[in-house]
Write a structure and sequence with these properties.
Blueprint (H helix, E strand, L loop, with lengths): L3 H12 L4 H10 L1 E5 L4 E3 L7 E15 L5 E7 L6 H9 L6 E14 L3 H7 L1 H27 L2 H16 L3 E2 L3 H8 L3 H13 L3 E4 L2 E4 L1
The structure holds a DNA duplex (13 and 13 nucleotides).
Length: 213
DNA sequence: ACATTAAGTGATT
DNA sequence: AATCACTTAATGT
């Protein structure tokens, strides 16, 4: 007896090219977790017990300090897993990053204890894991570059573009304050830059809403 | 109508 | 690019 989310999960796993028997294993030993927008899934220093496979929604990974500063690192969406979770699981080390639900998500939680064996047993799982790691390291480097070399205005624009790609929508519903937190700058700075983007017709904005043009 | 939260702005560092 | 101090605009109760 399969639930609708299990059917969707199954077809997504097939799409990913996973072996039939692996799909069965994933289905039997995982469990569904529904997480609402704004929920914290993981914070820095926590042990990771489950490998999250995202069925729907989107997560935002960030690095933070103890004074409430943070910086957005990358997003994780449908059909993806967070490669930092993989590292924490395999190396048995605590997570160095935090993860928050950006768009209400359904996540298939796979016990971390299975990961080692599956990497050995299933070539396609191994590929998936390495591919995920590679993807997220690329994202991370791109974020690193922007912090190191780009001016705030360009960083903001890149941030908006990244969000557009991650969400598949050119409308972003966030306040200037929230964006400022994610980029680790001040609200005033974001407001000024937004005004400029608006004046040069690169965006259109309303309260709590930015549309990329 | 009033309070609260979001966004805009000039001046200063 | 950040901070302060303040204004104006939008929204909730």
């Amino acid at each position: 007896m399969l639930h609708t989310h299990q059917i969707r999960l199954k077809s997504l796993l097939k799409e990913k090219g996973f072996e039939e028997s692996l799909i069965e294993e994933i289905l039997t030993c995982g469990r569904l977790k529904k997480a609402k927008k704004g929920a914290y899934l993981l914070s820095s220093g926590m042990k990771v017990a489950y490998l999250p496979f995202i069925l729907s929604g989107r997560l935002r990974a960030y690095r933070g300090d103890d004074e409430g500063h943070e910086i957005t690192l990358f997003y994780t969406g449908r059909g993806e897993t967070c490669s930092f979770a993989i590292n924490s699981i395999i190396n048995q080390t605590p997570s160095g990053i935090g993860s928050i639900v950006e768009q209400s998500a359904e996540i298939w939680m796979i016990p971390g204890t299975k990961v080692d064996a599956w990497i050995v047993k299933y070539p396609n799982f191994r590929k998936f894991i390495f591919q995920s790691t590679n993807d997220k390291v690329d994202d991370l480097l791109s974020t690193f570059d922007s912090i190191s070399f780009m001016k705030m205005g360009d960083r903001l624009y890149k941030y908006l573009l990244d969000l557009k790609h991650a969400s598949g929508s050119s409308t972003i519903t966030k306040s200037h304050q929230q964006i400022a937190i994610e980029l680790n700058t001040s609200r005033v700075v974001i407001s000024r830059l937004m005004k400029h983007l608006s004046a040069t017709r690169q965006i259109r904005q309303q309260r709590n809403r930015v549309e990329l043009l």
